[in-house]
Specification:
Layout (H helix, E strand, L loop, with lengths): L8 H7 L8 E2 L5 H11 L11 E6 L4 H15 L5 H11 L4 E7 L9 H21 L3 E5 L7 H4 L8 E11 L11 H4 L1 E3 L4 E3 L1
Antiparallel strand pairs: 1-5, 2-3, 3-5, 4-5, 6-7
Helix pairs in contact: 2-5, 3-4
């Protein structure tokens, strides 16, 4: 089955693909569009209605501060970091016109298992990417060193929160390349009562 436009909901789902953050250019979503994207992101499976996630928008005029914070955190962990490493940290913070930091914000006092709360975080972030695509933008969900640094996390929140990812959004500066997709005969099975058989 082939989907080659965005005219139907299924076409939107079937044609979303990740862009490279470094290739995303202006325009990005305006404030109204971004608010709608985030509202859609929040419409996600959420056992217990906990909203175990938060989104932090990093405005364009705060990218210098973000770059400085990431570089400070990197140098604190890796005092001997070279110039190229520092430049990579600086460039990471400055990609794409729009940046949303997705945070896992678990409600540890809840009886809902943390695993289920983490699944909801991933679903909400994926909804964010789908909403950006539906509006004609492209997105890139990145982790990397910064996502696992407590010092970087502390720029946006506090333990037990964790960074689920940095979602960069903008207009593709070059055509998006399709990537190989999983072989469905290897990733989907039918349970027969004793063992799952591929389809």
């Amino acid at each position: 089955m082939t989907f080659n436009d965005r005219s139907t909901p299924l076409s939107l789902l079937a044609t979303r693909r990740s862009a490279k953050a470094r290739d995303l250019i202006a325009p990005g979503p305006d404030s109204g569009e971004l608010a709608q994207i985030l509202q859609i992101a929040a419409r996600t499976p959420d056992h217990g209605k906990l909203a175990p996630w938060r989104f932090v928008v990093v405005p364009a005029d705060q990218r210098d501060a973000l770059a400085a914070g990431i570089i400070d955190a990197y140098r604190a962990e890796k005092p001997s970091a070279g110039r190229l490493e520092i430049e990579a940290m600086d460039q990471f913070a400055r990609q794409a016109p729009t940046l949303v930091v997705a945070l896992a914000s678990p409600k540890v006092e809840s009886h809902i298992p943390l695993w289920e709360q983490e699944l909801s975080v991933g679903a909400a972030t994926m909804n964010l990417e789908h909403a950006a695509h539906a509006m004609g933008y492209a997105a890139c969900w990145l982790t990397g060193w910064a996502a696992y640094s407590d010092r970087v996390r502390d720029l946006f929140g506090a333990a037990p929160e964790r960074i689920a990812g940095f979602v960069f959004i903008g207009t593709p500066g070059k055509p998006l390349e399709e990537r190989p997709r999983p072989d469905m005969t290897r990733t989907v099975a039918i349970w027969s009562g004793t063992a799952a058989k591929g389809i």
